[in-house]
Amino acid sequence: MVQQSPTPTGTASNGARLSGGALAALSxxxxxxxxxxxxTQDVTLHFLFWNFTWPLWLLILVTATLGAVLWIGLGVLRRxxxxxxxxxxxxx
Length: 92
Prior knowledge:
Elements: H1 20-38, E1 42-47, E2 50-55, H2 56-91
Antiparallel strand pairs: 1-2
């Protein structure tokens, strides 16, 4: 007879749970897709001496991607600085 160890109360038995960050990312991604689908017209952008026409959904996608990369990059820098500060405090 095989005896199974009891699982602690409040945890899923299969271990598959979404974190809050993953749930927020999925929700935000879904809302972004809906927003892009509703905004398909072309827009003309004027920046300094450049003028170009893009579909609005593409502009939204590029902007969201650049924002996400910047947000993640700043988080990585913050964690790195904190790690260096903890090592400096620990070592001397």
